[in-house]
Amino acid sequence: MKTTLQILKRTGLVCLLLILSPYKTVMAQQTGALPAYKTGVSVSYFGDLITHPGAVVSVEQSILPGRYQLVGSLNLGGYIHKRNHTALFTNLQIGQRYRFRSGFYLEQFVGLGYFRSYLNGDGIYEVSSTGVASQAANPGRGYVMPIINVGAGWDLSHRRNAIPLRLFVRPTLFWQAPFNGYSLPHLALQVGATKLIP
Amino acid sequence: MNLSKLLLFLLSFWLTSCFNGELQTDGTYFFLRSAGADMPVWVKGNTQSDVFILFLHGGPGGTAHEYVKNPAFSRLEQRYRMVYWDQRASGLSQGNPLPESMTLSQFVTDLDKVVDLLRSKYNQPKIYLMGHSWGGALGTAYLADGRHQAKIRGWINVDGSYYERGAILLSRQFVIDYANRAIIEGREVAFWQDALNWYQANPPYTTDQDHHYQLLDRANGNVYRPQADSTTVPYVQLALRSPFSLAALQSSPLLAGLRDEFIQLDLRPQLKTLELPTLILWGKYDGNEPVAQAEELYRLLGTPVKDKYLTIFAESAHSPMDEEPFQFASEVIRFINRYP
Q: Using CA atoms, how far apart are residues B107 and B139, in angstroms rounded to an integer?
């Protein structure tokens, strides 16, 4: 059990190091001929443990548009894990993206947000000291949400019949903290599209 | 691919995920809120039955959810209703309970609330407690109060703890005996000689015993037949289509205090206050709670001889419901039939 947590923490650390790594080498490969879309609006499927369904809407802004991009994004989403919890979350992320000539691109993001979790089940009960059971409210609990994701996709905006669209798949790791005295890791998958706006 | 086709693809992917698996629809799944913890209680099985078997998982810090596909419990579910409850800061329990609430006394209070909730929600069902390992200690501590015994029809103790310091001594001896046999038989001689040296250098209670529990695994003290199919838990199915989350694989640091209390626990004086019908189920090769514990438990129980039963499973270690599921289920059914 400890090993799983250590591996997850190590994965997060590696992603952070990559995010913070020097990008001068990549910048040298920038070309000026590519379309310069600075803003994007994304809609994506968000599956906690892949299959617990939800959605994320994002707005992103390229700080450094071109083949190599520095990106900031604001995300709003939620999902339903039946018989566990229903989640709503918002977070801010920064990331970097590198697009190859073919349109294929790789990206990675790191961020921090707010996560609200509501119990999902067939009821919540309290029992008094005299043994009387009654239904309880479900106001939800708030958590801090560190998040890391890596992604890959296709940028359709610079082909001959250019479509201002990006398709992406993003394996995501985020944490729900504090949870029973520790940070609960979640693995998720995002699959979606970004509409590009000049 | 145009935009509408893409959106259609995403929508179909989303809808596919919305289909629930059997573990997301089977039975009734609710939460008990108590002292900062939101603990899941899953009632599943034969809805016509008024017999409820409330399972107390091991640990502290285990989860009852990993037993929902267990062949022994599936068989019991055909006749009765199984109740899978995850204790505070354990398994799939949620909330943020305070470290001060991690006491045996609070766990007993939680258990009493689960029992009262079942009695209220299901119109006074016949409740049998089944405690495994640490769950055996929890059940014993709960039943030591006569008012609690009055709510319970029978007690099924599965390789359950009641005197952990004694169990630790027997557990160490279990590995030492295994090591000596292995050396005589010429199996992994160097490894087991190192193990014997470690035991000599590290007396009980004086050092971190993690290494002992690693050796116990190697000596098949937890699982007698590690290759047996029945011991596997379908984690992929649980992860993709059930209430299961990664929380079930975590160990909460909040439980450290309870673990210390558990190691000091000596419930032998309370055993004579237990007078309800009791079935003791134990693995012959249990290295965690060696079988001598079962014999002492049977002797110390206050239950009249005609109402207490001890069954030793010849091919099991710590979890006979995993290793001999069909015999396990048969023993439980026979017991419940005796005390309907």
A: 10
**How many CA atoms within 13 Å lie on the side-chain side of B206?**
7
Residue B59: which region, alpha, beta or left (left: phi > 0; alpha: psi -120 to 50)?
A: left
Which residue shows structure tokens 């005996």?
Answer: B177
Q: Looking at this predicted complex, what is its ipTM? A: 0.89
A9-56 pLDDT, tens digit per residue, is 554 444 444 444 434 334 434 444 455 678 999 999 999 999 999 999
Closest CA to B112 of B80, B77, B82, B87: B87
Interatomic CA distance for residues B314 and A136, integer angstroms: 47
Q: In DSSP terms, which residues pair with B45 in a beta bridge?
A: B81
* Chain A residues closer than 8 Å to B99 by CB: 181
Residue B268 CB burial class (10 angstroms; 0-12, 13-18, ≥19): middle
Q: Measured between alpha carbons, how far is B281 from B331 in angstroms, rounded to an integer?
A: 8
User: Quick check: B182 contacting A, CB < 8 Å?
Assistant: no
Taking the C-alpha atoms of residue A102 and residue A158, their distance in angstroms, rounded to an integer, is 9
The 10s digit of each residue's pLDDT in B120-135 is 999 999 999 999 999 9
Q: Which of B 5-44 lie inside 8 A of A, CB atoms?
A: 6-7, 10, 13-14, 17-18, 20, 23-24, 28-34, 38, 40, 42
Residue A137 backbone phi and psi in degrees, to 5: -75, 165
Cα B340 from Cα B328, distance rounded (Å): 18
CA separation for the pair B247, B68 (Å, rounded): 16
Strands B154-158 and B278-283 turn out to be parallel
| Number of C-beta neighbours around residue B59 at 10 A | 23
Tell me phi and psi for residue B318, to 5 degrees. -85, -15
* Whole-prediction pTM: 0.87
DSSP string, B261-329: HHHT-B-HHHHTT--S-EEEEEETT-SSS-HHHHHHHHHH--S-GGGEEEEEETT-SS-HHHHSHHHHH
Question: Residue A195 is encoded by which pair of tokens?
Answer: 């509409």
| Cis peptide leading into residue B243 (ω within 30°) | no
Q: Which A positions 80-109 lie with beta carbon below 8 A of chain B?
A: 81-85
